[in-house]
Amino acid sequence: MAKLVEAITSRDVDFAKWYTDICRVADLVDYGNIKGSMIIRPYGYAIWENIQNYLDKEFKKLGHENVQMPMFIPESLLNVEKDHIEGFAPEVAWVTMGGNAPLEERMCVRPTSETLFCEHYKKIIKSYRDLPKLYNQWCTIVRWEKTTRPFLRSREILWQEGHTMHRTEEEAREETQRMFKVYEDFQRNILALPVICGRKTEKEKFAGAEETYTIEAMMYDGIALQNGTSHYFGQNFAKAFNIEFLDSDNTLKTPYQTSWGVTTRMIGGIIMTHGDDNGLVLPPKIAPIKVIFIPIGNDNKVVECIHKLGEKIKSDITYKIDNSEKSPGFKFAESEAKGIPIRVEVGPRDLEENKVTLVRRDTLEKVKVTIEEAPAKIEKLLEEIQNNLYNKAKERRDSMIYSAKTYEEFKNIAQTKAGFIKINWCGETICEEKIKEETGLKSRCIIMEEQAQGNCIICGKKALHKIYFGKQY
Amino acid sequence: MAKLVEAITSRDVDFAKWYTDICRVADLVDYGNIKGSMIIRPYGYAIWENIQNYLDKEFKKLGHENVQMPMFIPESLLNVEKDHIEGFAPEVAWVTMGGNAPLEERMCVRPTSETLFCEHYKKIIKSYRDLPKLYNQWCTIVRWEKTTRPFLRSREILWQEGHTMHRTEEEAREETQRMFKVYEDFQRNILALPVICGRKTEKEKFAGAEETYTIEAMMYDGIALQNGTSHYFGQNFAKAFNIEFLDSDNTLKTPYQTSWGVTTRMIGGIIMTHGDDNGLVLPPKIAPIKVIFIPIGNDNKVVECIHKLGEKIKSDITYKIDNSEKSPGFKFAESEAKGIPIRVEVGPRDLEENKVTLVRRDTLEKVKVTIEEAPAKIEKLLEEIQNNLYNKAKERRDSMIYSAKTYEEFKNIAQTKAGFIKINWCGETICEEKIKEETGLKSRCIIMEEQAQGNCIICGKKALHKIYFGKQY
Predict the structure, then answer these.
(1) B317-356 pLDDT per residue, tens
(2) Exposed/middle/buried for B397, CB within 10 Å: 0-12, 13-18, 19+?
């Protein structure tokens, strides 16, 4: 038991090492053979499958259809949209040989698929009746990153990418916001992440987009994780790809486009928001195993009681019975390392009292309940854990958001505290860049629900926006 | 209407063109920008999602867990197992550049993942307690084929690959057969394909396997489609990768391995088995839309009746109401092209009689039923269609299986008929190769349930096996 727990570095001693320890000890990932590639192990992949199942249903409810585009993009196709190629060319993997023969034109493994979707949309969109097109794709993308960490920044990324085409600007803008909201709700309600949502600056927006909306999650160490984006493209790509449709007024028009995506990076966000020194802590709604039953000893009555309990808890509460040869103490530590929301300990002595012990992972509190009460109590506890994780994370996040009225104050906070700093900003890239160069902090997002009053803390001109700055993963 | 139907070449006039016409007209695929790459469109991808959902449940029921391995294999890793690299090296795509820098070691996009799984298994298998490992992966693989056709032979293939490790030979052999049976049952009962199951010869088995078991489906034109394989590896890879575990008797042992996979090629098998001159014909159990309601005219009563009917049919019967602006005739043709099992026509005149018209896609028979009878009749018809498709395909398949007692007879059949030819065979590769060189037919599979009697039709030595020969896709 001790051995397993000792293998996790304390989160307050070395956060980076704590993170990779959790990834390993909780059996989430293994490192691949090639730098920056990762193997997502069954327990980690089960989390991703839960994410997929939930989001896929939401997408489909809203009328989206799944498709599968090719994995390779010929260089000439990647080059069609100028900003896009500039953004991605430095970080793609190039295929240059097929079998033993060099290719006539090299092709990259998709870093994102706007160009592929546009090429296809050009063929299939002819009339206003063909609109909107609401496509989504679940796939793996490749970005040849220099520094890598499991889930946070890897060379291969599992994600979904929605790509939609609309008849009007209004519809496309609505879609951008609608999917942004789907991500926000999912991350708040299911992943228990108190995310901050806003708009990216001109400098930080997606290569080729008119506007990028971003979900920013703040990790335990105060560093931001960009955890999902929704882009409004306007007609940028559609014009570059000559996509036109015949509208009902018999004139040719250019459609409006969006794209939106989230990745396995969200798993990194869960780890770094909820985890503690005993290991992973999973929000019940995304946990592959919500309850683990651990028998103490191998009394027949204990086994019988566990099976009966298993049958009585609600069918959507996935549970596991740990019958392995390991000691109870080892099993306790392992269930904590894996972040299973509730552990149920059942021993012969408890049974004499007609009771079992429930241990909640978030607080490690133990409570003894009668066997009859247990199913309802488990259900209630799962809800409590879900809410508690969100509230705890929100409290911590709020305690690490600062306001700076002057640049001096900003620099002072940036040097001494972790977290986000809120400022007045004129909207000019030159001021944003000055902050980044001098403090290392990048803009997180423009706050959409707050109006700026006063002046930019850098240049002193009238402020256009309230905006967050922070370090990022 | 006429226009849509005319776009499909007759299946008996030009089968190859008929096939690609169906792929296009039924909106299953579009061609990608790179030769041999394909875009799987929403309707085609929905079929694949149904396949995935069904098989994934079966795999999990049997204790398998999903994982995600890297997409790239460094050349040195691909080279570890000698037979394996010889089999795959000529047909892989090589990545040689990351960003702007050449890679130190080139890597291929996985053509299959045995080497990646073995590398991982070596790290995580230490003790007999770690066995069996029952892993599966859903992913895309790449094989740089020269001639390509949608679903049948493409450069990017969507598939699942199971990779398992076992303590004993017996367990691994059982797993090989168990998953082989899962594939057989799925293809027979869900895809309505009357498949032939047997063992591959030494010459035709998977590169690196000890034994390969194959599912051979016969297409409408008598040509075979290899539609799934299950491999027993013995210790070949485990030894090449130095994978060992400490057994309960405290000695180091080498585990036994299997792998098994099916691909989007099965969609090609569905098309070429069940389709007809009006388009695709989908077995109800795999059809994304099982019933389509087509209103004749836009009478309010018609619309109301359709909505009521929709609510009354069983919830697992997916249906669609075609409210588009197209003419009823066009909608009829379109629903046929897309292979939707049952079309329900509802017009004002029918309603006066309290009736609706059901049209089954397999036979195009029409039947009028009362509105009250309709839900039960639809359910029954779907079952009938499923069975009828299987039986019709089986009858056709049986009519195209021949026996040859001499090589003369074999050559005569091979020249004049399409289909499979069953012969006595000595088991020697030299005789198998002679047949291939002289007739173009390849061995399909050794028949496991029939004992050979008599002599090899090529060399005249004592026959070891009954075996099928045939042309293949």
Answers:
(1) 999 999 988 899 999 999 999 999 999 999 999 899 999 9
(2) buried
Supply the mean pLDDT for chain B. Answer: 95
Q: What is the rounded distance in angstroms from the CA atom of residue B470 to the CA atom of residue B456?
A: 17
Partner A contacted by B80 (CB < 8 A): no
pLDDT band with cut points at 50, 70 and 90 for residue A35: confident
The complex's ipTM works out to 0.95
CA angle (B72, B78, B83) in 5-degree steps: 145
Q: Which of A473, A421, A410 is nearest to A447 (CA)?
A: A421
Instruction: Check the CA dihedral B434-B439-B440-B446 and report its sign.
Output: negative
Cβ–Cβ of B65/A46 closer than 8 Å?
yes
Token couple for A133: 């097109």
Which residue do the tokens 């299959």 mark? B112
Give me the residue from B42, B70, B100 closest to A39, CB to CB. B70
Distances (CA, A) of A326 to A85, A333, B312, B400: 54, 11, 52, 58
List the alpha helices (DSSP H) in B226-373.
236-240, 265-274, 300-312, 328-337, 348-352
Q: Which residues in chain B touch residue A89, judged by CB atoms under 8 angstroms apart?
A: 99
Specify the amino acid at residue A411: K
Query: Residue B98: which residues within 8 A CB-CB, separation 6 or more?
Result: A93, A94, A144
Characterize B250-275 residue by residue with b for buried, 16 or more Cβ atoms within 10 angstroms of its Cβ, and e for exposed: eeebebbbbbbbbbbbbbbbbbbbbb
Total-model pTM: 0.96
CB B27 within 8 A of CB B41: yes
- Contact residues, chain A, for B99 at CB < 8 Å: 89-92, 144
- Quick check: A2 pLDDT over 80? no
Complete edge-to-edge strand list for the sheet that includes strand B401-403: B65-66, B133-142, B156-166, B256-263, B224-234, B211-218, B196-199, B442-451, B465-470, B420-425, B401-403
A100:B90 CB<8 A: yes
- H helices of A275-327, in order, are 300-312
Phi, psi dihedrals of residue A216, rounded to the nearest 5°: -110, 120
Chain-chain contact of B94 with A97 (C-beta, under 8 angstroms): yes
Q: What is the reported pLDDT for B7?
A: 84
Q: pLDDT, tens digit, for every residue of A292-319?
A: 999 998 788 999 999 999 999 999 999 9
State whether residue A132 sits within 8 Å of chain B by CB: no
The verdict on A86 touching B (C-beta cutoff 8 Å) is no
Asked if the model's pLDDT at residue B2 lies above 50, the reply is no
Residue B103 φ then ψ, to 5°: -75, 150
Average pLDDT estimate for B233-241: 96
Computed from CA positions of residues A48, A53, A55, A60, in that sequence, does the dihedral angle turn out positive or negative? positive
B63 chain-A contacts, CB cut-off 8 A? none
- Widest CA span in chain B: 82
Alpha helices in B26-167 (DSSP H): 42-61, 75-78, 82-88, 114-124
Chain B residues near residue A92 by CB distance under 8 angstroms:
99
Of B34-43, B162-171, B350-359, which range is least confident? B34-43
The phi, psi pair for A337, rounded to 5°, reads -60, -35
Q: Give the residue with greater pLDDT, A86 vs B448.
A: B448
